[in-house]
Amino acid sequence: MSAQSAQATNVSSQKPMNETALKDYTFTSESVSEGHPDKICDQISDAIVDAFIEAEPESRVAVETAVTTDYVGIFGETRGPDSITPDKMEELARDVIKKIGYDQKGFSWKTARFDVRAHSQSVDIAQGVDAEGAGDQGIMFGYACQETESLMPAAIQYSHDVLRTLAEARHDGTLAGKLGPDAKSQISLIYKDGKPVSAGSVVVSTQHAENLSQEDVREMVRPYIERALPEGWMCPEEELYVNPTGRFVIGGPVGDAGLTGRKIIVDTYGGAAPHGGGAFSGKDPTKVDRSAAYAARYVAKNIVAAGYAEKCTIQVSYAIGVAKPISLFVNTHNTGTVPEMVLEQAINKSIDLSPKGIRTHLELNKPIYARTAAYGHFGRAPEADGGFSWEKTDLVDALQKAVG
User: Fold this and answer.
1) Catalytic residue flag (residue 311)
2) If you count DSSP H runs as helices and E runs as strands, how many of each does the chain have, helices first?
């Protein structure tokens, strides 16, 4: 074992200081809908990533989007086929906005003004990535727990579910013309003996038609909240807050500007686990901010699925241009059935966590990213075309063999 590996193993086998096993508490997470200004930006940026990768799987993309009233700005750096022109990026963005449902005064897919300023990828970055190194330095976290069937923290999972079902009802016509695209949810769960047992409070703010009252919206939204929560978990009536300001007609980029990458806690674990700081959307999978966070979730989920812990946090770190991870850290939060050091060794035997190894194992060089940009990157069902491959539990056998 190298000195560096020995040092990493020594550090990562230590328990974090002051980790307290809380038993009775309330924990809150929030989500935002596909029509939230920041999420519009995430979806546009990822639609551009998909277009590049579909045309050329080895494309390099780092694209940011900004929106405000009647305006969409697209910026960043790319390396890929000439077919993805600024006009094509604008076309892709207009299609995203149309699918979300924005055709309102002040922000419409038809009339928004565009400014596209993407340029070629830096040759200094390219030389490290082309040598199979990481596209940037940084730390990435993955997490899994037994609170839900998807092995996600319950508060963020149910917050997503509320908004997803509302959006589905808007798109299928059930709530068309009644609710608008912009919405937020927030669920506070009561924990007893370390496990969630009910909702203490629920907050939903949703854009709505001008002729609807606050009570109209409350009664319209209530069934979707009840559907998202487990049976018997609905909060007390006095703790249900729907559009607590009383009115939410002006929404989307007319009401608030948006930027790519500004909802990283919504994208991950709702605050129930650490986040390394890097956003996901707009980045091709050579960027470890994205791919290594997916891999860390994959490893953590498989550890929990294998029965080695009730909850698990994984951290990996990288240096730009360097192929191997700089460090690996495993924490099973005092719920593990085997030592963390054993799990670290099993992980290293079971999966190649180099940037190229991750892309190969999870088959990330596919146009699978636009679908991740709303309602969370984690806790979703793996799809036949490779979408959400990091949610599979197909590493369990390899981990069990490596643990012995």
Assistant:
1) no
2) 11, 13
